Amino acid sequence: MIGFATFARVGQEVREDLAAAQQRDPAARSVSRVEILLTYGGVQALLAHRISHVLHEAGVPLIPGILANLMKVVTGVEIHPAARIGRGLFIDHGAGVVIGETAEVGDHVTMYQGVTLGGTGFARGKRHPTVGNQVMIGSGAKLLGPIVVGARSKIGANSVVIHDVPADATVVGNPGHPVRVDGRRPDGPDADWAHLPDPVADAIGGLADRLTELEELMAEQTGHKPGGAEVRRLERRRGPDSAGG
């Protein structure tokens, strides 16, 4: 049943979406909420979804799907009317974002362009991801299947996540691997995608170290150092601080 309380709830959710845009987008901090509502495609898509979801839950036929499709054409963001979206979601840039029918998104989540919360297979039922509170999902990341992404996790750009992610983890790669920095959640700004760990480089570095140890053992046994190609140790290079520091 749609009543005054429903519209009041939707209005509060939209206000929180606008506040999230101002807080998490440096370009929006000096912009009024009216301008954000009129010019930010991600916010517009969320507003439309809040309405279409209410209509879908009320059993209204056809209109929720038409509204969702219209927003897909206008903003490039496709959110199924049945998807459950928490408070304070911010979709930055928006283009190419797809959120499937049984997806569930927690509170204060941030997504960048090209993110997909998609399903796998043709079975009915729960087939899309469940994303916890305060999760950051980088541009182009694909979260597939009925996986659970723990609260405060960080999904690196272009990662493909097909398994559950623990809370406070950082996931990179294809397929995505949970990694940590010094055994803890990485410090720094949430949008600092330039300094994520590289598990492939770490693995190759470990192999290079092991090869050096084997060569030293061989040299001790044979009395001469084996020749061959030079093995150079991989060095992690850091780019400029994306936070401007």
What labels would you give this structure?
2 domains; 15 strands; six-stranded mixed sheet; five-stranded parallel sheet; 245 residues; alpha/beta; 5 helices; UDP N-Acetylglucosamine Acyltransferase, domain 1; elongated; 33% helix
Could you please describe the fold and organization of this structure?
- The protein is an alpha/beta fold and 245 residues long.
- The protein folds into two domains: 4-188, Hexapeptide repeat proteins (UDP N-Acetylglucosamine Acyltransferase, domain 1, 3 Solenoid); 198-245, no CATH class.
- Helix content is 33%, strand content 14%.
- The chain is built from five helices and 15 strands.
- It has helices spanning 4-24, 33-39, 41-57, 63-75, 199-222, and strands spanning 78-79, 84-85, 90-91, 98-99, 104-105, 110-111, 116-118, 130-131, 136-137, 142-144, 148-149, 154-155, 160-161, 170-172, 177-179.
- Helix 1 (4-24) runs antiparallel to helix 3 and helix 3 (41-57) packs antiparallel against helix 4 (63-75).
- The relative contact order is 0.08.
